[in-house]
Write a structure and sequence with these properties.
This protein has a domain of about 160 residues. It starts with 9 loop residues before the first helix and ends in a 15-residue tail after the last helix. The chain is built from 15 helices and no strands. Helix content is about 60%, strand content about 0%.
């Protein structure tokens, strides 16, 4: 299925600003940053007693308008982009995260030499701080995206699923004695007082669509959006490694959140496919089985060749690609597909290129090159290094 429509104009945001500097002007002290901070500011929800006052809530739509317009027409700024991504997730969920991460990748790829914050005599700390801040904020935002969609009910997020596990209540109470019933009631009461949901409420939210719960199609679509987010995350992680080197801030908080939510959604998709199976016409099913058997007979020789000894270096890399794809589809929360994918990329590099990719310390790299007899990215005989 094709991707959902973009929620921001990526092309416009990645078009150079007219003038001498394609990144436009630094608006950090021109009021823009303060406007965005005020738009995203929210008062803490605390008991106010008899002194009641109106609380300030974040205006995420205003953040999107301010940051998006600035990136299109005035500046290319990593911190402004980070604010925009946070707001996109709050308003548009995982589609917003996908497009926001793509935008951040584009700013790194197209505007690295000019993008704000500027590099201070080789020091990338200001830029790294913007990315680290983004990762922390997105960990929270991702876990607040609704992951239920039931009829006439309240939509729940990953955070609320976590809460429901702490306040689980059995579906059937008939077999419980009076003490156990009292504990269940106390748990329900505590959840209500703390504004949390119980496991019972969560299960009702994800029950069969016919019974008012979240439909299977919702989880399958959410799974596809999360796969797109993961691909955008990997692209950003790679370009950050390339640009920041050893100064890269990493995206551990965001990765942790994506891993957690993807794992839960993958589990729910499997459960939904069992609870709400496809309805297939019996004659069509029989034809499908016949066609599958015939296809299997035709493909058997190729399958036998693939399961035999590896025939060449390219054959080995192709098999690794199959392994990576398998883990990507069956265990999307696992790092295996990412690590195998990186191994495939390394397998297509020369030794010199591989060292450049892996070793970020120039002095260590020079020592390794000298030890291995490498000069200027070529081997001792003057040809390309062998992998």
């Amino acid at each position: 299925m094709s991707s959902s429509a973009e929620v921001i104009n990526l092309e416009a945001c990645l078009t150079p600003i007219p003038g001498d500097n394609p990144a436009g002007e630094n608006l950090q002290y021109a009021g823009l940053h303060d406007e965005i901070r005020e738009a995203r500011r929210a008062d803490e929800e605390l008991a106010q007693g008899q002194w009641q006052r109106e609380t300030k809530v974040a205006d995420w739509s205003a953040v999107i308008n301010l940051a998006g317009n600035a990136l299109e027409t005035k500046t290319k700024d990593l911190q402004v982009c980070a604010w925009l991504i946070e707001a996109l997730v709050r308003v548009h969920g995982f589609t917003g995260l996908r497009d926001g991460l793509k935008l951040m990748v584009g700013l790194h790829e197209k505007f690295w030499d000019h993008v704000f914050p500027e590099i201070d005599e080789g020091d990338l700390e200001a830029r790294a701080n913007s990315l680290a801040w983004m990762s922390r904020q997105l960990e929270d935002a991702v876990k607040r995206v609704p992951i239920t969609k039931c009829r006439g009910g309240v939509d729940y997020s990953y955070y609320q699923w976590e809460e429901s596990q702490k306040f689980d209540v059995p579906d059937t109470l008939e077999t419980l004695d009076s003490d156990a019933l009292a504990r269940v009631e106390a748990r329900r009461q505590q959840a209500a007082e703390e504004g949390k949901i119980t496991g019972e409420q969560w299960r009702k939210a994800i029950m069969r669509m016919q019974d008012g719960g979240t439909p299977r199609a919702f989880y399958e679509e959410t799974s596809r959006r999360l796969d797109e987010c993961w691909n955008a995350f990997l692209a950003l992680d790679k370009v950050m490694d390339d640009k920041f080197g050893q100064q890269t801030p990493g995206l551990g908080n965001l990765k942790s959140a994506l891993d957690s939510v993807r794992s839960l959604i993958a589990k729910l998709v499997k459960e939904k496919r069992l609870a709400e199976p496809d309805h297939v016409d019996s004659s069509l099913a029989a034809k499908s089985l016949t066609d599958s058997a015939e296809a299997g007979r035709r493909e058997a020789p190729n399958a036998l060749r693939r399961s035999g000894p590896i025939q060449s270096r390219q054959d080995a890399l192709r098999r690794l690609e199959e392994v990576a794809q398998y883990f990507h589809e069956t265990e999307p929360h696992s790092p295996v597909s990412y690590l195998v994918g990186r191994a495939i990329r390394w397998g297509q590099m020369s030794l010199s290129d591989w060292l450049n990719d892996v070793v970020k310390n120039d002095s260590v790299l020079d020592q390794l090159r000298e030890t291995l007899g490498l000069k200027g990215g070529t081997n001792a005989s003057g040809g390309a290094d062998e992998s």
